[in-house]
UniProtKB/TrEMBL annotation:
One of its GO terms (molecular function) is ubiquitin protein ligase activity. SUPFAM superfamilies: PUA domain-like. It comes from Rhizopus delemar (strain RA 99-880 / ATCC MYA-4621 / FGSC 9543 / NRRL 43880) (Mucormycosis agent). This is Lon N-terminal domain-containing protein. Residues 21-264 form the Lon N-terminal domain. It holds the Pfam family LON_substr_bdg. The lineage of its organism: Eukaryota, Fungi, Fungi incertae sedis, Mucoromycota, Mucoromycotina.
Amino acid sequence: MTNSCPICQKRLPSYQFIQAQPVTFLINRVLLERYPADQSQKSWLPPSTSPSGTEIPINLLDFPLLPSQILRIPMRTLQNQVILRNHLLVCPETQSLQLAVLYKFKASVGTIAKITSVEQRENGTLITIVGMDRFAVLKIKQTTEDHVVAEIERKFEQTESEHTTDDLSSVKLATRIHSFFIHLAQSAPSRSFSNHVQGLLGPVWLDSVQTMYGPLPSPEDPVGLCWWSAAVLPVGNHERHVLLETNGLMDRLGLILLWIQDLESQWTGRREAEESE
């Protein structure tokens, strides 16, 4: 057996290198053609122009996944890997494999997530996904402990050609949110706050969340800043799901600002209590 391609004679990548690559649309097509019996287990995500009512398998999570949020899912057992394979969505538009995920306690709006990497580890497989488009659940057809099969309607953000007069207003709100995070990064850390907000200060904090969630988006990208803020701020799953359900960008930015005001009031109250002691 040779380690070179029989056609171009270039050296072939190692098996370990191939194992570490993301599962792609092309690889999936090759597998389907090589093993046609598996085709019945694949669901095809229709293009964005398709009418609502698409029926797909949806994974249930203990928390809502937001657009642009990165999530790593460990697959430690063969059963986990089989479930994952059966729930894959093939998206020809983006040439990728995707998953649909839903907050199990509020089965109304979920997120389509793209698989970005698959890593083989000693204790199993680690799947990395990133949230993309939202979807609304129209009708649930089947329910199990870990997933549902439901008809959905995909929701998309405005494209550049669909910008409205609200754009300037959304940038203004986004600027206020962005300024809040810059202020946090320039503030000295403090352990005197409640456990709910401890550590939410200082450049080290900003560096750590940017490592986890990506760079702080610019106010000129209010959509990206909205979802980044929701992933970073210390709020509960219920609040995040309410944001996920909210369609208007201005309304979502308003919710983020309410969260920020609540945090600021906590800090102000704590400082006043410390000064009076």
